[in-house]
TrEMBL record:
Keywords: ATP-binding, Coenzyme A biosynthesis, Ligase, Nucleotide-binding. ATP binds at residues 19, 41, 182-184, 188-189, 200-201. Its EC number is 6.3.2.36. Belongs to the archaeal phosphopantothenate synthetase family. It is an enzyme of class 6 (ligase). Homodimer. The keyword Zinc-finger does not apply. GO terms for biological process: coenzyme A biosynthetic process. This is 4-phosphopantoate--beta-alanine ligase. Pathway: Cofactor biosynthesis; coenzyme A biosynthesis. It comes from Halogeometricum borinquense (strain ATCC 700274 / DSM 11551 / JCM 10706 / KCTC 4070 / PR3).
């Protein structure tokens, strides 16, 4: 099955496309089998959210763009699901906000680290961090704590899509401004984020890039105002409300 064989008119088009990309990711050695399970969980939440970007998620995506543009040293973290779903889109976002890309895996193996770095390079990335692993996130077990000292280790703002709760909490405890993309507003990852984006990464990343391009000429004050006016508690509450009251088709 290739992308083209799924008719775009299919009511579950995006979900079928997503599944297919994850399946391909597993076949290429980019995505772990656990990534398949994470995908299933995400899909269930996306279904409940109506498989669309809510107004509240769009506001979070704009705040994320403003925050990334304001950062001294922004880093975008990439795991196996992110690499399978939005490799080119992550490269474009990194370019739009002048951020580093760093591979970070829950189940870290050198083969998978390399496969993901190669996959990102095939999609236009020039420099991919994560393989040096000369830095540590405090309070995490050894493998999970590894980061590049001059990447996530030195970052002031990190985008961590589909991150596991332990590491999201540990990064926030390190004082990083954390932007999380997670379809489950109740997950610890979303709960520990300064900017939780409750949206499918397939829609979220290109939309953050669009907002960043739109804010290219904005002043520092304008960007700061967008970040300041973003209300994380309200965003999480609105996402939960959307899930509870959703009209399903
Ligand atoms: P924790 O409470 O520790 O955060 P978790 O249950 O969130 O645990 P995982 O299953 O590893 O742990 O996390 C996967 C998360 O990623 C889930 O919350 C899921 O909703 C989210 N997710 C999966 N696919 C997508 C996607 N395409 N876009 C956005 N979020 C996704
Ligand atoms: Mg989580």
């Amino acid at each position: 099955m290739s992308d083209i064989e799924i008719p775009e008119s299919h009511p579950r088009y995006l979900s079928l496309l997503t599944r297919h990309r994850i399946e391909e990711g597993v076949e290429k050695g980019i995505t772990s089998k656990q990534g398949l399970i994470a995908e299933g969980r995400g899909e269930a939440f996306d279904y409940l959210l109506g498989e669309e970007t809510t107004a509240s998620a769009d506001a979070a995506e704009r705040a994320a763009a403003a925050q990334l543009l304001l950062a001294e040293h922004p880093v975008l973290s990439v795991n196996g699901n992110v690499a399978a779903l939005v490799p080119g889109e992550m490269v474009e976002l990194a370019e739009a906000v002048d951020a580093d890309l760093e591979v970070n895996l829950f189940n870290r193996t050198e083969e998978r680290m390399r496969a993901i770095a190669d996959h990102l390079r095939e999609h236009g990335a020039e420099d991919v961090k994560g393989l040096t692993a000369d830095g540590r996130i405090p309070n995490l077990d050894h493998e999970r704590a590894k980061v590049d000292a001059d990447g996530i280790g030195a970052a002031d703002v990190v985008l961590v899509p589909l991150e596991d709760g332990d590491r999201a909490e540990a990064l926030a405890a390190m004082g990083k401004v954390e932007i999380v993309v997670d379809l489950n507003p109740m997950s610890r990852s979303a709960q520990s984020a300064a900017i939780p984006i409750v949206d499918n990464i397939i829609r979220a990343v290109p939309n953050v890039t669009d907002h960043a391009r739109d804010l290219t000429d904005a002043t520092e004050e304008e960007r700061e105002k967008i970040v300041r006016e973003f209300d994380r508690e309200a965003a999480l509450r609105e996402a939960e409300d959307a899930i509870r009251s959703g009209e399903l088709d």
